[in-house]
Amino acid sequence: MKPLDIEKKSMEIIEQELGERASAWPLKELLVVKRCIHTSADFDYGDNLVFSPGAVDTALDALKRGVTIVTDTSMAAAGINKRSAAALGVEVLCFISDPDVAEEAKRRGVTRSAVCMEKAAALGRPVIAAVGNAPTALIRLKELADEGKFRPELIIGVPVGFVNVVEAKEMILESDIPHIVAKGRKGGSNIAAAIVNALLYQVHREM
Amino acid sequence: MKPLDIEKKSMEIIEQELGERASAWPLKELLVVKRCIHTSADFDYGDNLVFSPGAVDTALDALKRGVTIVTDTSMAAAGINKRSAAALGVEVLCFISDPDVAEEAKRRGVTRSAVCMEKAAALGRPVIAAVGNAPTALIRLKELADEGKFRPELIIGVPVGFVNVVEAKEMILESDIPHIVAKGRKGGSNIAAAIVNALLYQVHREM
After folding, report:
1. A204 is catalytic
2. Which residues in chain B have Cβ-Cβ distances shorter than 8 Å to A74?
3. Cβ neighbour number for residue B104 with a 10 Å cutoff
4. Which of A98, A44, A46, A39 shows the shortest CA–CA distance to A71?
5. SS3 state at B148
6. Closest CA to A25 of A206, A197, A180
7. What span, in angstroms and rounded, lies between the C-alpha atoms of B43 and A184?
8. Cα(first)–Cα(last) distance of chain A, in Å?
């Protein structure tokens, strides 16, 4: 079986096993849900993903206009399909290993992830923020928005973890910034990348 | 809370929620299990990980001797703690984006992942193969071993998926090559990286 056939077959199995849950999602959101399950084999993503109204359409429009994607981990950046992104003029950036980020974080006693989001804000461009690891990145994004300094086109809020993660996600869920969030503890860099890829592939399918 | 405190607290929560399952694992294996749950918030890893006898000790010895780690995805490579690896003289390699791998795969009608494992074999050095994505990488590793051409110090066999994945893992589970495998569909590049990191941190803890 060729890779594309395997993917098609996998998606069929996922949709079948989702059963009635599959038909509960609008198609555009279902494509995101399925890709999260595809990357984790974890059917909890059939229940825990939350899309703010119109989030997928907002994201697709932003991608078509060549939005910049900023991730909080190099792993999430590595998982994003660079060819699909580049074909739309979409740049994928991650600042977590930048020496100036480490210095600034140390000096101010904040996390490197929080500083990364400030660096995303300083780009002065439309940005999709994809957060798969650090709740502090989400908290900083919310603060920057509240201060009127930065408003991402979309926040993908899927950090994974046991401490501060649920609360940080709730903060984004309650905000009016367009978002796709995995409620609860689950998520990860792989899930952040899967959501971005699901959105990229939808744009390419429409083209 | 500082990152290290958050990690400590997270591991305590994981151990608590694992309950009796935690005490069923030998400590060295439990540290791997817990890090897989830490990276996914998925407690299925409390049940589905299989360690061949002495696999962790074999891995720790290999890491102390500066084994080379070869992954099947750039995402898994990105997730491995490079500072911990470098401190042991451990190199982390991934060949999936190499132009010669793509060419060779196309020419022979095999997957790039399979060719990557051949390239790992051709290094002529001790290797830990960490497979988070491609069942064909596991199948090729088994074939190379059967042909007497290549025997990794350890196979981390945790591809995720719905087609050919379970069967490829069974092939490794039945082999005499030291292995750590996530039985069933689950796994991923994040899990492959988490297992490598759990092993690296154990070496550092012992030092």
Report:
1. no
2. 78
3. 17
4. A98
5. coil
6. A180
7. 14
8. 27
Global pTM value: 0.97
Is the Cβ–Cβ distance between A117 and A141 less than 8 Å?
yes
What residue ranges in B48-117 does DSSP mark as E strands? 49-51, 68-71, 92-94
In which band, very low, low, confident or very high, does the pLDDT at B4 lie, cut at 50, 70 and 90?
A: confident
- Catalytic residue, candidates A10, A22, A29, A38: A38
Write the secondary structure of A53-113 as one string of H (helix), E (strand) and C (coil): CCHHHHHHHHHHCCCEEEECCHHHHHHCCHHHHHHCCCCEEECCCCHHHHHHHHHHCCCHH
What secondary structure does DSSP assign to A117-181, as a single string?
Answer: HHHHHHT-S-EEEEESS-HHHHHHHHHHHHTTS---SEEEE----SSSHHHHHHHHHTSSS-EEE
Q: For B139-191, what is each residue's pLDDT tens digit?
A: 999 999 999 999 999 999 999 999 999 999 999 999 999 999 999 999 999 99
Cβ neighbours of B183 (radius 10 Å): 17
A101 - beta bridge partners?
A: none
Number of Cβ within 10 Å of residue B99's Cβ equals: 7
B1: chain A residues, CB-CB within 8 Å:
163-164
Q: Distance (Å, rounded) from C-alpha A28 to C-alpha A202?
A: 8
Alpha-carbon gap: A143 to the closest alpha carbon of chain B (Å): 18
Instruction: Write out pLDDT tens, residues A86-106.
Output: 999 999 999 999 999 999 999
Closest approach of A15 to chain B, Cα-based (Å): 12
- Could you give the CA distance from residue A32 to residue A25 in angstroms, rounded to a whole number? 10
Residue whose tokens read 């935690």: B22
Instruction: Check if the beta carbon of residue B201 is closer than 8 Å to that of residue B88.
Output: no
The helix or strand, by DSSP H or E, that contains position B168, with its residue range, turns out to be: helix B165-173
The contact set of A with B (CB < 8 A) is: 1, 3, 6, 9-10, 13-14, 38-42, 44, 73-75, 77-79, 111, 160-164, 184-190, 193
Q: What is the rounded CA–CA span in Å between residue A125 and residue A116? A: 15
Rounded distance between C-alpha atoms, residue A179 and residue B77, angstroms: 29
Asked whether the predicted pLDDT for residue A1 surpasses 80, the reply is no
